[in-house]
């Protein structure tokens, strides 16, 4: 299946060939899981949501337009699913405890790195939903700005400004948490 | 360019974009505050790289494939739709062609011209059978796809397109029974180089013990010695099913 585009695979899915969905799953389930994981902090829930996205792809295959990037369409489904789930389960999207990377006793650099990662995660958790989402899409999901803009329903420049604001907020929170730790 | 305009492009700098406008460079050269901010926030952006990527458990893949193999769309049955179904149409064409051949043989015995016509019709039947097989292999229901594999085995001269579809089914079909049937069907085309190459590759793709054992059996049947390194690599996998490991060791002994 190498060399076959997502759109071609999605066309196969639309024709009823579910094996093509398996290929789309193999390509996208990890980044999608990470997106959910970073949005909810819940591993089990993130696995359920990831799986559900692909079955919604199957269910709504007739609404897919081949001139729209598959990834943007898939994340649209993911966002709707996340909103629905948050409403049904009455939970605030995010905060959960991300696992903390363990460090080798005595290895100062390792400990410092581990603390830095831990602080960064907490800072990310503290970001408001909209900021966290645009930052994750831009930094981790390998999406083009045009795709993010289509997904969020805004202009490319607006996406860039939102990412800037999210990074600035993340930096402020990080410094604040760092200061609290130092006290 | 003022500071607000410049901030629109900060993320391009962090992402290492090549088309950062020259005006931004000029602005940064003359504005210490923006220069400091783009560098400081750039470190935050880069630091995000250190966040480990969470990995899903094997449960996700298992449940997805189980659910996919059981997935069926709600049928929207109608006689008209059934008559328009390509599988039905192709099967009907095969029956009509076969009947034509029978009539041709009966009516035109002992004439060379009719023999040639019959041979051509037989070729057409083979083509139609392959078309039916391809159609069935693309169906939603695992039962249909199993029938598709069966149709392939009825066409001893399957062309490359059909063999490609069979190999793809053996490697990617969500249902393990269909995959196993396709692997066994591949063994019937043992003189075809693409099948001999595909089987060892398939071994490294399979994650179900049933399918892994089926591929090993076909490799042994074909005496495909080039598969030995793939089998050795399989044996070294720490999470390999013990039955598969034992079978792989047996297969290796058969090939050596």
CATH topology title of the largest domain in chain B: Leucine-rich Repeat Variant
CATH class membership of the largest domain in chain B: Mainly Alpha
What is the CATH homologous superfamily assignment of the largest domain in chain A? Answer: RNA polymerase sigma factor, region 2, helix turn helix motif
Would you tell me the overall average pLDDT of chain B?
81
Oligomer: heterodimer
End-to-end separation of chain A in angstroms reads 55 Å
Main sheet of chain B?
none
Global structural class of chain B: mainly alpha
Q: Structural class per helix/strand content of chain A? A: mainly alpha
- Binned strand content of chain B: under 5%
Extended strand count of chain A? 0
Alpha plus pi helix count of chain A: 8
Low-confidence stretches of chain B: none
> Strand count, sense and closure of the main sheet of chain A?
none
The Cα radius of gyration of chain A reads 18 Å
Describe this structure in words.
- The complex is a heterodimer of chains A (183) and B (256).
- Chain A is mostly helical.
- Chain A has two domains: 1-94, RNA polymerase sigma factor, region 2, helix turn helix motif (Rna Polymerase Sigma Factor, Chain: A); 108-183, Winged helix-like DNA-binding domain superfamily/Winged helix DNA-binding domain (Arc Repressor Mutant, subunit A, Orthogonal Bundle), CATH 1.10.10.
- Chain A is 73% helix and 0% strand.
- Chain A is built from eight helices and no strands.
- Chain A has helices at 6-14, 19-40, 43-59, 70-89, 108-126, 129-139, 145-152, 156-182.
- Mean pLDDT of chain A is 82; it is low at 94-105.
- With 256 residues, chain B is an all-alpha fold.
- Chain B folds into three domains: 3-47, no CATH class; 78-137; 155-256, Leucine-rich Repeat Variant, CATH 1.25.10.
- Helix content of chain B is 73%, strand content 0%.
- Chain B has 15 helices and no strands.
- The mean pLDDT of chain B is 81.
């Amino acid at each position: 299946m190498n060399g076959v585009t997502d759109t071609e695979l999605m066309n196969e899915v639309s024709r009823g060939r579910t094996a093509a969905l398996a290929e789309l799953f193999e390509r996208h389930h990890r980044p999608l899981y990470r997106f959910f994981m970073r949005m909810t902090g819940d591993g089990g829930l993130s696995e359920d949501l990831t799986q559900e996205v692909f079955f919604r792809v199957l269910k709504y295959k007739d609404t897919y337009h081949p001139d729209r990037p598959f990834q943007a369409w898939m994340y649209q489904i993911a966002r709707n699913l996340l909103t629905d789930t948050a409403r049904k389960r009455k939970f605030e999207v995010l905060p959960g405890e991300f696992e903390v990377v363990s460090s080798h006793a005595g290895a100062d650099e390792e400990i410092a790195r581990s603390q830095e990662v831990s602080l960064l995660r907490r800072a990310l958790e503290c970001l408001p939903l909209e900021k966290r989402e645009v930052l994750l899409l831009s930094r981790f999901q390998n999406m083009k700005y045009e795709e993010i803009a289509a997904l969020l329903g805004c202009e490319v420049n607006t996406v860039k400004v939102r990412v800037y604001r999210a990074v600035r907020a993340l930096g402020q929170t990080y410094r604040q948490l760092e200061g609290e730790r130092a006290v | 360019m003022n500071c607000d305009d410049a901030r629109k492009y900060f993320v391009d700098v962090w992402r290492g974009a090549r088309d950062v406008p020259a005006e931004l460079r000029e602005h940064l050269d003359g504005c210490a505050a923006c220069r400091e901010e783009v560098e400081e926030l750039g470190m935050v952006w880069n630091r995000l790289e250190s966040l480990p990527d969470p990995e899903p458990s094997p449960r996700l893949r298992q449940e997805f494939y189980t659910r996919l193999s059981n997935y069926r769309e709600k049928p929207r049955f109608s006689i008209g739709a059934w008559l328009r179904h390509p599988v039905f149409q192709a099967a009907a064409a095969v029956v009509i062609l076969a009947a034509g051949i029978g009539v041709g043989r009966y009516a035109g015995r002992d004439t060379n011209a009719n023999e040639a016509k019959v041979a051509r019709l037989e070729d057409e039947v083979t083509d139609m059978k392959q078309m039916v097989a391809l159609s069935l292999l693309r169906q939603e229901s695992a039962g249909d796809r199993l029938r598709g594999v069966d149709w392939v085995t009825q066409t001893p001269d399957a062309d490359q397109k059909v063999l490609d579809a069979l190999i793809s089914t053996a490697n990617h079909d969500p249902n393990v029974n269909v995959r196993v049937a396709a692997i066994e069907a591949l063994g019937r085309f043992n003189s075809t180089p693409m099948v001999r190459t595909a089987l060892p590759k398939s071994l490294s793709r399979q994650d179900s013990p049933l399918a892994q054992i089926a591929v090993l059996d076909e490799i042994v049947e074909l005496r495909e010695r080039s598969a030995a390194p793939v089998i050795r690599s399989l044996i070294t996998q720490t999470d390999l099913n013990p039955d598969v490991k034992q079978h792989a060791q047996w297969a290796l002994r058969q090939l050596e």
